[in-house]
Design brief:
The protein has two domains: about 170 residues, 2-Layer Sandwich (Nucleotidyltransferase, domain 5); about 70 residues, no CATH class. Helices cover about 50% and strands about 20% of the residues. Strand 1 and strand 2 form a beta hairpin. The chain has a five-stranded mixed sheet, with helices on both faces. The protein starts with a helix and ends with a helix. It has about 260 residues and is of the alpha/beta class.
Length: about 260
């Protein structure tokens, strides 16, 4: 894949703009073991469960509904590396402007910027709205006041006045710790919240598409009632789910059959 990306522009121009989205969901994992109990050294089976984050990403052209998906139980660098390969298959080249939509997960935006040098990161609007509502609640505003406070802030942020909003919040930060957190959050993403401008350009301002993909890629199989997974088997199952979601199912089994017959 990397070789295709590095081909000269005259050979492979790639697409002008490309969308990538990334989001996570929790999957219950289990570690099974044994321990000796009491003076009799009776063997007792143990079972410890933990929730771990599975990350799903997608890439595709803005003018198409076709998408290439990735999914992995792993760190942002590992998942974003696979997302980069998926983007190449969708037409990524060094000239491509990448529109990346995701939440404000620690290190996520930074890793996307590492993988995609020409990235326009867009902070998922619904996540910012949630932060605003949490702050309004911490300010002890009633329901009507909260709604008005959030709507006024979002209108100004969306229209490009985010720096003015940050300045106002910093003036009020001594009154509430949550206000200071919101000001820092907005300062971190001040170049990723011009929602009116993004909408005018036809860019998505929410990661709803990849959030929907969670339901039919990992969750439909890995999050069934009562299920717990060994960590080492999660990515194997995710690989099968991605093959199916990408429409590679028939090709995968033809290749497996060819390998079996050639053995």
């Amino acid at each position: 894949m990397r070789r295709a990306y590095e081909l000269p522009e005259g050979v492979r121009r790639g697409v002008a703009e490309l969308l990538v989205e990334l989001d996570g969901c929790e999957i219950r994992t289990v570690v099974c073991g044994k321990e000796l109990v009491g003076e009799t050294n009776e063997i007792k089976r143990t079972r410890e469960t933990a929730w771990k984050e599975v990350r799903v990403g997608l890439s595709g052209r803005l003018d198409s509904q076709a998408r290439t998906f990735v999914a992995k139980l792993g760190s942002y660098p590992h998942v974003c590396h696979e997302l980069f390969s998926a983007a190449i298959s969708e037409g990524l080249s060094p000239r491509t402007k990448v529109i990346g939509v995701a939440d404000g997960g620690h290190g996520l935006c930074e890793e996307l910027q590492t993988q995609f040098p020409k990235l326009q990161f867009i902070l998922d609007k619904s996540h910012l709205v949630s932060h605003l509502y949490e702050t309004a609640e911490a300010l002890n505003l009633n329901e009507r006041e909260r709604r008005s406070w959030v709507e006024e802030k979002m209108e100004r942020i969306s229209s490009g006045k985010v720096l003015a909003v940050i300045t106002e919040l910093k003036r009020e930060e001594k009154s509430c710790h949550r206000v200071r957190r919101l000001a820092d959050y907005l300062a971190r993403f001040q170049d990723a919240v011009f929602y009116d401008e993004y909408a005018a350009r036809g860019y998505p301002i929410g990661s709803g598409e990849v959030e929907s993909a969670h339901r039919y890629i990992p969750q439909k199989r890995l999050k069934i009632a009562g299920a717990s997974w060994l960590s080492e088997t999660v990515n194997k199952m995710l690989a099968m789910r991605v093959i199916r979601a990408n429409g590679w199912w028939a090709d995968f089994w033809r290749q497996r059959q060819s390998e079996f017959l050639a053995a």
